[in-house]
Inverse folding.
């Protein structure tokens, strides 16, 4: 009798351990989260021929908002027109029908409209920034910003119809990153002055007009000394942080990062006169940034390698990160690059592609420790690739929220497809 009971107990224990092991294996860090859309992956379509996902944000209720563009193509595959697209998902990955009826919304400004960034206000309103362009002898763009109510309708309290277009002197200007600052909308981008491009930071009031308490007219140009483009913005401790690239030629460019006071002046306690320029030895471009306890993490690429730089609050290299504050690495791929960064506590999650060409590459996710080492608790070696079944894939944005890592980007075979991924942290 005792032997039989012991046998049963041993058998039950073995079964429980096996089930536990299997559950842990299924929920490993870096695995696709199958509770989102059944397999952790969504290829989203809108009316149109091609679609690109550019940015992702998560609302306070856990719903996921993604933005990008939809394109109409001619017989040669060239884009003839495009629009902002916004989609919202429930936490299970289904489209949220309370958002514009079917979970999808188009916003049109003009002929060629491209949404690059999204931010969620504390009142649940959704703000999207990008460019609206026309083709003359070349493409001329204006900055475009739209604000939507939580139900997906355009917010008429923002500039009368929910849309703002900002033109500077009829020349080329636009925006890359967006953030909310005490109810005001901040966009980082660029502006052409007739001879070269400068970085530009735009700030709008809650009603959608340029905020004249910021730099006098709501637009703060930053000349880093060459052709300058700002790709991302973050708000921390009442200051504005921006990053991008300063390019003196087709083969020479540096990371540029600046810290700006809320009134639109450079914070001279950061770097040199409020600006930090970093030459990593190649063509260096910064695409995104995150702030960790006052330290600034900037990601992008240097020639054919990923690049991550961490600065102190004073703008110096943070030597507690990778020994010298910098990582430039191939990660074992041909020509990888990074497009976005988010924080998971003190850990650093970055995304991009294993190959920077338009016709090759696989979607890339990597996670680093606070000290700059690849985190081997994530996908075994800190590096994860996901094949979406096309010739080329790239993630453009990442966010960590509610125990999930969300990514958005594009998958390209013959045309671009809008992709959204969800991973276990």
């Amino acid at each position: 009798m005792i032997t039989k009971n012991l046998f049963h107990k041993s058998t039950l224990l073995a079964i429980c351990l096996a089930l536990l092991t299997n559950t842990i294996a299924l929920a490993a860090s870096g695995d696709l989260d199958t509770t989102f859309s059944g397999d952790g992956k969504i290829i989203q379509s809108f009316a149109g021929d091609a679609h690109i996902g550019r940015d992702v944000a998560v609302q306070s209720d856990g719903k996921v908002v993604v933005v990008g563009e939809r394109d109409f193509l001619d017989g040669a595959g060239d884009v003839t027109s495009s629009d902002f697209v916004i989609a919202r998902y429930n936490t299970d990955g289904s489209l949220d029908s309370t958002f514009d009826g079917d979970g999808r919304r188009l916003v049109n400004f003009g002929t060629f409209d491209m949404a690059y960034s999204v931010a969620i206000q504390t009142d649940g309103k959704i703000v999207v920034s990008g460019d609206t362009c026309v083709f003359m002898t070349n493409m001329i763009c204006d900055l475009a910003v739209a604000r939507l109510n939580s139900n997906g309708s355009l917010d008429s309290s923002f500039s009368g119809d929910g849309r703002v277009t900002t033109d500077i002197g009829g020349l080329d200007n636009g925006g890359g990153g967006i953030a909310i600052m005490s109810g005001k909308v901040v966009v980082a981008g660029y502006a052409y002055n007739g001879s070269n491009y400068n970085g530009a930071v735009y700030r709008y009031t809650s009603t959608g007009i340029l905020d004249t308490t910021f730099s006098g007219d709501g637009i703060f140009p930053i000349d880093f000394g060459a052709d300058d483009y700002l790709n991302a913005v973050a708000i921390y401790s009442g200051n504005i942080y921006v990053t991008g690239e300063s390019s003196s030629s087709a083969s020479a460019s540096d990371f540029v990062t600046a810290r700006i006071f809320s009134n639109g002046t450079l914070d001279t306690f950061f770097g040199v006169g409020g600006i930090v320029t970093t030459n990593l030895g190649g063509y260096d471009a910064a695409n995104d940034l995150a702030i960790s306890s006052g330290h600034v993490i900037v990601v992008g690429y240097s020639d054919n390698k990923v690049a991550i730089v961490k600065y102190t609050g004073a703008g110096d290299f943070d030597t507690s990160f990778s020994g010298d504050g910098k990582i430039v690495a191939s990660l074992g791929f041909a020509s990888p690059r990074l497009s976005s960064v988010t924080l998971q506590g003190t850990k650093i999650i970055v995304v991009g592609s294993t190959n920077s060409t338009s016709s090759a590459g696989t979607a890339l996710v990597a996670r680093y420790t606070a000290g700059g080492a690849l985190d081997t608790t994530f996908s075994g070696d800190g590096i994860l690739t996901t094949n979406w079944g096309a010739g080329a894939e790239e993630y453009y944005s990442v966010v960590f929220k509610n125990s999930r890592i969300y990514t958005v980007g594009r998958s390209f075979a013959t045309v671009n497809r809008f992709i959204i991924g969800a991973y276990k942290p």
Observations:
- The first helix runs from residue 2 to 26.
- The chain is about 5% helix and 50% strand.
- Residues 1-29 form one domain.
